[in-house]
Design brief:
six-stranded parallel beta sheet; alpha/beta; seven-stranded mixed beta sheet; 11 helices; about 25% strand; Rossmann fold
């Protein structure tokens, strides 16, 4: 049955308020308006950023449909959509690329003005395409992928190769690209350098993969959970340490381990204290430290400005520095060419209705990435 132009009823995981479980509900998904695309989601990953909303550390309006790391197929398009058509395999983009704002037009920029990090939860016309039990349900980060169907703006969707397996390339929608790009694009890791990665979850492992791809000769993984060391070594870390094994500050430990030669550090946890630790751990004069983990909302960071005065570079990194619509299709092509292996990051694949089980795997530290399939 042709669904174009019609309201679609489907299943979605609705979060009605913070610190409550997901509720699998029947929702109505309105047809796409001008410059919008309706997508049938095929696979979606569970990311720690989704959990920030559940815990209330990231701003959102409620009720909301979370999820922002996915792959799917275009079901229908609104007027004036030119870059995708029904049947195209696509990746929704939590970081849009309008190709018109200052950030999009600058070769070094990628933080598009259409981004919804602030949690407004509406499309450009100020409305939502979701309803449940007669109430509007809000969008999340331009994507909302914990649902069988979603509507995104054309600036938030990238057409990818039809051969791409959705249950794998969905990771290119957030976790893998963020970490890999932090090393190769934002940090610009150089061959023969020494890197330290704070946090060995899915994004941290992707940073390690990026450091290895860039030719780093020494990659030190850092995490309190030693159970993560084996996987970190498998994807390219040369050694792993736990701060709990030392009395000294981790910056001193790394300096002694490397002869004061850590060129690049990456904070992939989102903790304010660790961000300062990572900054202090790179070389005081020529080191670069990249903040990759999403910081908690409404928090202020305090640090000694001498850490920067001596010459260090401190950088932020959203979506690995990639221009989303331009670079995501290229990353998918690189994956198909076996330039990197996403299988190493996927520990669990579950049906969509087991989303709560997927989050329990995240909380318990058992999973790197859990992918939900429809």
């Amino acid at each position: 049955m042709n669904t174009a132009g019609k309201v679609i009823k489907c299943k979605a995981a609705v979060l009605w308020e913070t610190n409550k479980p997901f509720s699998i509900e029947e929702i109505e998904v309105a047809p796409p308006k001008a410059k919008e695309v309706r997508i049938k989601i095929l696979a979606t990953g569970i990311c720690r950023t989704d959990d920030h909303v559940i815990k209330g550390t990231m701003v959102s309006r409620f009720p909301v449909i979370l999820g922002h790391e996915a792959a799917g197929v275009v079901e229908s398009i609104g007027e004036r959509v030119t870059t995708v058509k029904p049947g195209d395999k696509v990746i929704p983009l939590f970081l849009p690329q309008c190709r018109e704002c200052n950030a999009c037009c600058n070769p070094e920029g990628n933080f598009c003005i259409k981004s919804d990090i602030a949690g407004h939860g509406l499309l450009s016309d100020g409305t939502t395409r979701f309803t449940c039990k007669g109430k509007p349900v809000y969008h999340f980060m331009n994507t909302s992928t914990f649902t069988e169907f979603t509507v995104v703006e054309e600036s938030s969707v990238a057409k990818v190769d039809d051969a791409a397996p959705p249950e794998k390339v969905c990771l290119i929608g957030c976790g893998f690209s963020t970490g890999y790009g932090a090393a190769v694009k934002t940090g610009k890791v150089t061959p023969g350098s020494t890197c330290a990665v704070f946090g060995l979850g899915g994004v941290g492992l992707s940073v390690i993969m990026g450091c290895k791809s860039a030719g780093a000769s020494r990659i030190i993984g850092i995490d309190l959970n030693k159970a993560k060391f084996e996987k970190a070594l498998a994807v390219g870390a040369t050694e792993c340490i736990s701060p709990e094994d030392y009395i000294k500050p981790i910056s001193e430990v790394l300096s002694e381990m490397t002869g004061n030669n850590v060129g690049y550090t990456f904070e992939v946890i989102g903790r304010l204290e660790t961000m300062v630790d990572a900054l202090a751990s790179c070389h005081m004069n020529y080191g670069t430290s990249v903040v990759v983990g999403a910081p908690p909302s409404a928090k202020v960071l305090s640090y000694d400005p001498m850490l920067l005065f001596t010459g260090r570079t401190w950088k932020g990194c959203i979506f690995g520095g990639w221009k989303s619509r331009d670079d995501v299709p290229k990353l998918v092509t690189d994956f198909l060419a076996k330039k990197f292996d996403l299988d190493q990051l996927i520990t669990h694949v579950l049906p969509f209705n087991k989303i709560s089980e997927g989050f329990e795997l995240l909380y318990s530290g058992q999973s790197i990435r859990t992918v939900l399939t429809f």
